[in-house]
Amino acid sequence: MSLHEFNLALLGKQLWNLIQKPSSLVARVFKAKYYPNRDVLDTGEGYNPSYVWRSVLASKDILREGLRWRVENGHKIDIWQDRWIPSSLSYKIESSVSQFTPTTSVYELLDLDSRTWNYSTSILSTDKGF
């Protein structure tokens, strides 16, 4: 591992801390300045970024590559774009099913009361699948 890769790993840890500890002072300051209406992973450098912010953002692609969703209620998980399927190489849906819109969330596929798939309204009721 080169020194550059090691530094990116350390910066990725700081970015992870911004995600995991959104109420920390650093996270609140960065959010107010650079991503007030977005998620930290969906933001860019913004206007006149500090050296620290540009450095932390340098690790965004590396961190994003390793992130996976834990489903829970599925409200925020886009079935097409997000990495959420644990048994897939890409962690994404690999086939296209026209039954769902481009903005379908995992929430729409779940029966939260029984904590199982909702077979009556999901693609799981067909012979197709994930």
Helices, strands, pairings?
Layout: H1 3-20, H2 25-34, H3 51-57, H4 60-66, E1 110-111, E2 116-117
Antiparallel strand pairs: 1-2
From the N-terminal CA to the C-terminal CA, the straight-line distance is 36 Å
Tally of separate domains? 2
Shape designation: elongated
Kindly provide the radius of gyration, computed on alpha-carbon positions and rounded to a whole number of angstroms: 18 Å
Largest sheet: 2 strands, antiparallel
Strand content: under 5%
Question: Unreliable runs, pLDDT <50, ≥5 residues?
Answer: none
By secondary-structure content and strand pairing, the structural class works out as mainly alpha
- List the strand order in the largest sheet: 1-2
Kindly state the number of beta strands: 2
What proportion of the residues is helical, as a percent range?
Answer: 25-40%
Organism: Linum trigynum
Protein name: Mitochondrial protein
Overview of this protein structure:
It comes from Linum trigynum. This is Mitochondrial protein. This protein folds into two domains: 3-66, no CATH class; 69-130, no CATH class. Helices cover 32% and strands 3% of the residues. The protein is built from four helices and two strands. It has helices spanning 3-20, 25-34, 51-57, 60-66, and strands at 110-111, 116-117. Strands 1-2 form a two-stranded antiparallel ribbon.
Descriptive labels:
2 domains; elongated; about 130 residues; two-stranded antiparallel sheet
Question: Could you provide a short overview of the structure?
Answer:
With 130 residues, the protein is mostly helical.
